Amino acid sequence: MIRFENDYTEGAHERILQRLWDTNYEQTPGYGTDEHCEKARAYIRKACDREDIDVHFLVGGTQTNMTVIASILRPYQGAVSATTGHIAVHETGAIEATGHKVLTLPSDDGKIRAEQVRELYDAHWNDATHEHIVQPGLVYISHPTENGTTYTKAELEALSKVCRECGLPLFMDGARLGYGLAAKGNDLSLADIARLCDVFYIGGTKVGALFGEAVVITNDALKKDFRYMIKQRGGLLAKGRLLGIQFETLFENGLYGELSRHAVEMAMMIREAFVQKGFSLRYDSTTNQQFPILPDEVLTELGKTYSFSFWEKIDDNHSAVRFCTSWATKKENVEKLIEDIRAL
Amino acid sequence: MIRFENDYTEGAHERILQRLWDTNYEQTPGYGTDEHCEKARAYIRKACDREDIDVHFLVGGTQTNMTVIASILRPYQGAVSATTGHIAVHETGAIEATGHKVLTLPSDDGKIRAEQVRELYDAHWNDATHEHIVQPGLVYISHPTENGTTYTKAELEALSKVCRECGLPLFMDGARLGYGLAAKGNDLSLADIARLCDVFYIGGTKVGALFGEAVVITNDALKKDFRYMIKQRGGLLAKGRLLGIQFETLFENGLYGELSRHAVEMAMMIREAFVQKGFSLRYDSTTNQQFPILPDEVLTELGKTYSFSFWEKIDDNHSAVRFCTSWATKKENVEKLIEDIRAL
Amino acid sequence: MIRFENDYTEGAHERILQRLWDTNYEQTPGYGTDEHCEKARAYIRKACDREDIDVHFLVGGTQTNMTVIASILRPYQGAVSATTGHIAVHETGAIEATGHKVLTLPSDDGKIRAEQVRELYDAHWNDATHEHIVQPGLVYISHPTENGTTYTKAELEALSKVCRECGLPLFMDGARLGYGLAAKGNDLSLADIARLCDVFYIGGTKVGALFGEAVVITNDALKKDFRYMIKQRGGLLAKGRLLGIQFETLFENGLYGELSRHAVEMAMMIREAFVQKGFSLRYDSTTNQQFPILPDEVLTELGKTYSFSFWEKIDDNHSAVRFCTSWATKKENVEKLIEDIRAL
Amino acid sequence: MIRFENDYTEGAHERILQRLWDTNYEQTPGYGTDEHCEKARAYIRKACDREDIDVHFLVGGTQTNMTVIASILRPYQGAVSATTGHIAVHETGAIEATGHKVLTLPSDDGKIRAEQVRELYDAHWNDATHEHIVQPGLVYISHPTENGTTYTKAELEALSKVCRECGLPLFMDGARLGYGLAAKGNDLSLADIARLCDVFYIGGTKVGALFGEAVVITNDALKKDFRYMIKQRGGLLAKGRLLGIQFETLFENGLYGELSRHAVEMAMMIREAFVQKGFSLRYDSTTNQQFPILPDEVLTELGKTYSFSFWEKIDDNHSAVRFCTSWATKKENVEKLIEDIRAL
């Protein structure tokens, strides 16, 4: 079985494992105060072209989302998100468990638009009984989205502008950020993201690391005491150096970008094969997740050799499914898949 | 600087790193449903001499404590703990953040006694207005304690008996469990612990792993839906296999016990050296943490070569400090320390 | 200005005020343990034709909803509700503040149907990764709904059946329960409701009392320790007798039904007047809230003499508004309104 | 049985009941936006000699404590309180249910001292791993305390000074504030309290009202969006006017002070009788709660005619008990009690 079902099926890039070996007997202080974490922070600041940002390392995405969001909101505020946002649907109510509602905006492609945020904001404050309603307190976006789509620079600038006008911090879930930066046609740099978002994270788990998410806080008002939040939510890794070592490796020589580009290239080959064969795509994804709409017999046929994820039923005989590539995807496996698609 | 300041200063035992290399390109499903996790569970069941237990893998101690405790308590219940318990003092209110009070019992050595639990329980239910008071809902103990002390089998049996009489699940924080099992004079086996506790965990972070805690649930009533709890609290590692691989390695051939015994042996040598030199000990610890009471000039002298932790001021010229060994402690370093103690 | 904007604009029925006078210097124990509360409980048990129910008195609706829901759900569970449910939109995230998501089902009239609950339940448990998703834990309905509509006995029986099949307690928010019982065509008795719901409440605030909601718990599994929950959520009134006295008055001689019938009769007269004048209604309400769709000029005209609530914009020139009657509505005011409608 | 067991055994002062009658058919908007609330606010501002304060009305003490505290603290902060503080012992973990730890300071008389706060604050910030520990976020005091004692102006000024130096808002629970203002030897005015505290409340429930607590926020930084907090925590009374009417009545002509003085006078008579008879007092209370230490045979004897509360066992034959007076205490009952004490 060749697996395209998600982007966390393998371990980590070998350079990371090698670095873990090499540093194994170093004795370092705990909780992210070691030199590897410091170096990784320096590399990330450089990649963001900003010295005045705080960088923290957490273990996983849900943990990061709940920690960041709980650190920003007042008790009666909620996080604005697309209906499809990870925090809205796939985190077992982790945000609600911190006391906050997720305020959803309809979205077909996973993105939300500046106008939607403005409308929600205005609707709230124009309501005569607004104190009976959860107040919007921040805007959460994922980039790339859960559907593989990405924001353009113009879109992100518009969102950022509205958010700042409304006093709503903009938080980008970058669990797959590398794949967004490597997307075909992407015009957003890390520096742009750091400029336009108040806080975001650079996903490691799905982009070459064993685990780890690097939270970047650019808004001074959100920096204070964030380590208390990490500790309270169970995210302050005792051997914090493990996170430092991984991000150090990913960012010292451009490995993060390299791995991301590979995954996107593989995904584009798969996309092309499906399109050429005449299948349509559920979303116009330019990143490492592809969502072809396939008839049942094709699903059965491909399912003999490949694992992929069911996404949604389209009609009686068709479903959208997800093929995921990653930093670890082998080109030979993609080529075999393409051959099999052509042979359908 | 030779570090004795804690038991998480190094990476992991080499067999674990090797196993990570060897399995790196295996493609496995996520979230702890892979074969490595299954194998690790089987080994742990065997070590506990019980087939009917649930085993889950989480990343760190605070995360584990808050997840287990929040899964057990009703909203108006609290966790009974020694005043010195980790959940009471060193987790930034993680338990309170899940909505629950920590009900503390006085303790000088870090342990609580069966009679204390019974008294607290009776006091609660004998109070005419008990619904105005947080109801005791479970008993939390650490073994070894934060002070290096351990429960004897008789003590744990007494605690367990009272807990069952009172309907209070007994939860053992085993972040350093290996060192307790390896303690001089220990008469508790893993099977005893599984029999006497309703839920406990086997710490990996401090005993040879990069990270990881194996939660063992023995009480059927506490098993249901625990994976939802892990996910909600941010503890469901995407590449769950990393936890499986580590515990598989630690438990397939007795490595866990071996590493633990080494650390305790090193600690006992240090203890002996201090005692022979005439220093007293703050706690009668038989495990990997030792707490000598030392005059200021000795602290200054030893501090030139060794790092260790300040524990508490004893009088104007003396402080208790903590020397910590671990699976990674080098015998040569211990011998050098002993020599330096003798030479004081 | 004659107010039809809501059903809590006046104080309380005079018999209640009189009873407060008469009992003012009685010395009673606090927190709902007095004889008035006991009597009120007895009357309510009789009205429900059930001796084996627990009755508790709380102060207001949001407080009651959050207390009941938090007492039932496990941490990873959510409350299923219509999108229009009070807990979903008008309680400032009170449910989320207790850690729980509100899982919404689409509804145009404010009601949810048995099939919707079954579908949600099946969808959850059929999802391979269901532990990543909030688990449905109870079903919340309001009766009458926020739109003035009511459940028929057949509908409530169907809902109750599905809920029991799925192990989901059914919770009825009866903030306006009296008006539902008095609705034209209503075929549900209090005994039916007690039989079909696991917990519900009988609203006093909007039906003749100064304040107060009587929670009835019929499901034995939900009864334990409920007073702890009330206290913890701030709902255990020191002078609990005030609640007892009010419900005693409302239930000893049928006053509750009498007041409810009056309000519904007044509402039906208003409805009839709008319909006869050719206006349509946003919802087919048979209770004390009526939602005519009116052109802007009519709104302006009526707004000179009457206060009512804006509900929603229908098109460029029409809006739905809400006219609310209550136990305190004066017939002469309704007649004047009807006259003015006719004269439009 | 003549009851001295607490200060909420009767209803309300007759002027309040009369006012409820008189205003019963007024039609007012809900949720505290009516004219009675506005008038009550104006009276309270005048009593505090400050125009720039926000005044909100809530129903009860636990509700008020949890709402105020949750509105102030960041998620990782705790409320500093005496070990005997109401929030620490008698609110079923209501504060913890909002996610916050209560950080207790030892106290024998119910008061905490400025130096204790300073020490706790310094200890926190001097700890190298302070992010592992709950950060002090506000200071909670009760005045009078649960033991009937009161702060002098000098003590409150010292506390306030330290709190401001440490950036810790000072919150006074004034559930019995009237009795403190009326205490023998009291040198604190409402204006002093408004000047020295960041937020406090004026208790109505125990001082002549049916229920109700008036929260006064003097610190601008704590004013924003407080109504959202009240609504979310279930404290926004639909018929908010009931609170306005009560505080209007209590404050328009000095009734609050008058009732308070009566209760304290009655308490002082009881105190004097016990002292003259040679009994000692558990606390030096100058307010409406008195705590004589009595031998068992006296308890039995007095218990035949009077109800009072058990406080604590002092030795094998003696217990401290609580006699409570209130605005409603009848002088003839006090005189009878005194006679019976003398006759012992």
UniProtKB/TrEMBL annotation, chains A, B, C, D:
Q: Does the keyword Transit peptide apply?
A: no
Biological processes per GO annotation: amino acid metabolic process
A Pfam family that the UniProt record links to this protein: Beta_elim_lyase
Q: InterPro entries this protein is in?
A: ArAA_b-elim_lyase/Thr_aldolase, PyrdxlP-dep_Trfase, PyrdxlP-dep_Trfase_major, PyrdxlP-dep_Trfase_small
- Quote one Gene Ontology molecular function term: threonine aldolase activity
Q: Which UniProt keywords apply?
A: Lyase, Pyridoxal phosphate
Name of the molecule in the record: Threonine aldolase
